[in-house]
Amino acid sequence: MSILKIQDVDLLNKKVMIRLDLNVPIFNGVIQSNKRIKATLPTLKYAIDKGAKIIITSHLGRPIEGIYNKNYSLLPVFNYLKNKLNVSMKFISNYLDKKISFKKLNTNIIMLENVRFNIGETKNSDILSKKYASMCDIFVMDAFATSHRAHSSTYGIMNFVNICCIGFLFYSEINALSNIVSKPKRPMVSIIGGAKISTKFNILNYLGNISDTLIVGGGISNTFLAIKNNVGKSLYEPNYIVKAKKMISKYNIFLPVDCRVGKEYSKYAKSYLRKINEISNNEEIMDYGDKTINLIYNILINARTILWNGPVGVFEFLNFSKGTKYISKYIIESKAFSVIGGGDTISAVERFSDIKKISYVSTGGGSFLKFLEGKDLPVISFLKSKSNLF
Fold this sequence. Notes:
Strand content: 15-25%
Distance between the termini: 14 Å
Radius of gyration: 23 Å
Helix content: 25-40%
Strand order of the largest sheet: 5-6-4-1-7-8
Structural class: alpha/beta
Number of helices: 13
Shape: elongated
Number of strands: 17
Order of helices and strands: EEEHEHEHEHEEHEHEHHEEEEHEHEHEHH
Oligomer: single chain
């Protein structure tokens, strides 16, 4: 892929803005998961070693633009990075209308407050993009998880900076995902869970076409099951039943043969094992059953490539976590090259298994799925065109 990489650019004494994805869960000022932050360290350390003057930017959550909210402040992330990198750093809140002087700040690394506090960020404002661009000589995009959105700090800025490139994390993402869709080892098994088939219809078709087996779970599988079965009060989409039926005729789709149901959506709900054709009107499918889990074991243990996005049940509730729990364990036990993506999927693996044994963990959610569909993401398209200038 002809995109300029950070190691292709001279960083010495250059003002380098690095857009990271530091959108991590924070509760009462305490970071709950540092996985995304750790993934950014190779790019940051490289820029430090090459003598760059670094400006770190990121978003956190979805605050109201123009209104400061301490619950969305990046200060806890700044403190974590400062400790992890063990270097002098400065945190700046009001930066849009001020000229940043590294010399006056007596540091070579600064971090800007949450870009989503800035008016025009999510609307890709040219005015805001130009302000970002005026701060730097080089822009490094290393936030793959945001590359499917055209925002000022991820996309707009590139219109006004002469040199744009990608960091190590961004490159590893597109390299790993490109390989899995272009030359996967066979058999390839894809697991797609989630609430609605409508939100993942395109990726289901794409993966159904390239996978030897496509396993569906959650509300997505309920829509497939509803073709021939009563699914009670389970979440499913009647408008997609005809489309789901066509997919079954085209692809090798694995559907559950039994399930765990509850009579209320609650962590205290009792679970009942049911065959797929035995679900009552007052019951809701919330997880795979034991026979289904055993069948999936045989599929995964023989796979050579496994792609997983989306839990297959309500794994947050103990009584309905078994399917997601055992899939995470089976993937670890297999000899397959495994790739997982999406926040809930990562959380599930971290809870039930050893995520270090997953071959590749993608930091992306929406960008992960769109890239796998074969869609050109806005940021990647722009970077390709920019690279032609060099």
